[in-house]
Specification:
This protein is of the alpha+beta class and 400 residues long. It has 16 helices and ten strands. The longest helix is centred in the C-terminal third of the chain and has 41 residues. It binds cobalamin and iron/sulfur cluster (2 copies). One iron/sulfur cluster (SF4) binds next to helix 9 and helix 11.
Length: 400
């Protein structure tokens, strides 16, 4: 079964059976208390518990799918009600433990890099090592800690890679509210964090959902989104979203979005960067999330010049690996087409004109046409004062 998700290079593990039965040495309230303490010790910034009722979200999801907003992400429609009914995915599930893990490394510049069109912007969640294994491991450790105290019980750990309504569960578990950009936000931490879950058969007490909507009249994310992908409050048309276009989409990037992509070559953070709550982001201390190969500020051309073996080596253990070299070049070609004119860029693009992939060649040709337009515009602008001086000279001669 394919349960691969946009951010996941790995298939989900939903076929593993849930181990059952526990001898309860703690009462459920004590278990919940311990889980919260251990959760912090294991590096989760928040942990909340909720039940399995996602009725309202089943409706929202179906409307989203009917509108076709999922584009080529067929797996979003593939699992029927198992996505919205946790006990159908994992029989016996009574409660879901939802966790938050912050991922922004310290001293990372984001808006500055977006403003430097010769540099590559890589979504901040993907700068370091892939988060799936790390979070799943910590979630398993959390469950095992409790098993040591109370004996075996049923649990399954999920991060991103299975049919799970992670945001809806997080909102219900009290982690944060659904922003207009569809992100789960916390008023004290913004939204630059991952979500993960433990499905369990333990009858734990549930936390209060996060009811308050702190967006108010703000619409910054909606007005700022470069491609107009936030089509309604909390609703993303993925087909327009740069995250989808650069990570999920196979084949050509539609022409209408190429300029808007700017230098964003893997994912997009704009609707978070403009959000007023992002200033409350707390830097992570997880070494795994530290940028590798200067991906937080690399030049587009340097990444474009990576050979395929270099791409494979530099993206080992990173979420970028799943993109593959061909789509990596595709995305970078768009970025280079959007960069200011430079002979160095033109040479690098020309060197890929005979690359054995129609997809890459077409994006390279597009980028070269953009570079040519900018070169001509630069020449025109440079010659304008000369032309003006020439006219002055003619006028001066005529009047003598
Ligand atoms: C598919 C997917 C995508 C797709 C589609 C995005 C989307 N909004 O669905 C694409 C590739 C575009 C994408 C992009 C990104 N994603 Co993504 N993605 C997912 C995935 C796998 C499923 C999301 C999903 O269920 N979509 C279906 C739609 C219907 O659900 P939804 O967008 O959450 O919409 C809900 C609201 O609209 C709500 N709703 C609608 N009306 C109303 C009204 C009210 C009153 C309320 C309360 C709610 C409500 O109901 C819907 C269903 O719950 C999850 C992991 C998972 N398994 O959950 C990660 C996940 C959502 N992604 C994540 C991230 C980090 C991103 C990016 C930031 C990555 C990047 N930097 O490029 C961008 C952000 C884009 C954005 N603004 O959403 C994180 C989000 C963490 C957080 N803080 O919220 C998740 C949870 C992965 C993880 N484990 O951490 N993603
Ligand atoms: S991730 Fe970028 S393109 Fe997608 S909704 Fe947010 S701002 Fe728009
Ligand atoms: S930018 Fe404004 S509207 Fe958008 S999520 Fe943040 S607070 Fe809400």
């Amino acid at each position: 079964m394919n349960t691969v998700s946009p951010h996941s290079p790995e298939p989900g593990n939903i076929d593993d059976p849930m181990p059952r039965e526990a001898s309860r040495a703690l009462d459920p309230a004590e278990m919940a208390e311990k889980l919260k303490i251990w959760g912090r010790e294991l590096g989760f910034q928040q942990l909340g518990i909720t039940d399995t009722d996602l009725d309202a979200h089943e409706d929202y999801l179906n409307r989203w799918l009917e509108a076709g907003y999922h584009g080529e992400m067929d797996y979003m429609a593939r699992h029927g009600t198992r996505r919205t009914r946790p006990a159908e995915l994992e029989p016996g599930t009574l409660r879901i433990i939802s966790v938050r893990m912050d991922y922004l490394p310290p001293e990372i510049e984001s808006t500055r890099v977006l403003g430097q069109p010769e540099r590559a912007y890589v979504a901040r969640y993907a700068l370091g090592r892939d988060y799936h294994k790390l979070i799943r491991k910590r979630l398993t450790q959390l469950a095992q800690k409790l098993q040591k105290e109370i004996g075996t019980f049923g649990f399954r750990a999920f991060v991103d890679s299975a049919p799970v309504m992670e945001r809806a569960l997080a909102q219900k578990a009290g982690i944060g509210w659904f922003g207009k950009n569809a992100m789960i936000l916390n008023p004290k931490a913004g939204s630059l964090f991952f979500l993960g879950e433990l499905y369990t058969d333990l009858p734990l007490p549930v936390d209060a959902p996060f009811e308050r909507d702190h967006c108010g009249k703000c619409t910054r994310c909606q007005t700022w989104c470069p491609t107009g992908a936030i089509v309604d409050d909390k609703v993303i048309d993925a087909r327009r979203c740069i995250s989808y276009l650069t990570i999920e989409k196979h084949g050509a990037i539609p022409l209408e979005y190429r300029h808007a992509m700017g230098n964003r070559v893997f994912g997009c953070d704009d609707c978070q960067l403009v959000c007023p709550f992002t200033r409350f982001t707390r830097a992570t201390r997880e070494q795994d999330f530290a940028p590798r190969h200067a991906l937080d500020r690399a030049r587009l051309i340097d990444l474009f010049n990576w050979s395929e073996p270099e791409f494979l080596e530099h993206t080992q253990g990173s979420a970028i690996r799943r993109l593959g070299y061909e789509r990596w070049l595709r995305n970078l070609a768009v970025g280079l087409g959007n960069a200011p004119f430079s002979d160095e860029i033109v040479s690098a693009l020309k060197a890929r004109l005979s690359w054995p992939s129609d997809l890459v060649r077409e994006h390279v040709r597009w980028a070269l046409s953009q570079q040519a337009q900018k070169r001509d515009a630069t020449r025109e602008a440079a010659s304008a004062p000369l032309i003006e001086a020439g006219f002055k000279d003619i006028i001066a001669r005529q009047s003598t």
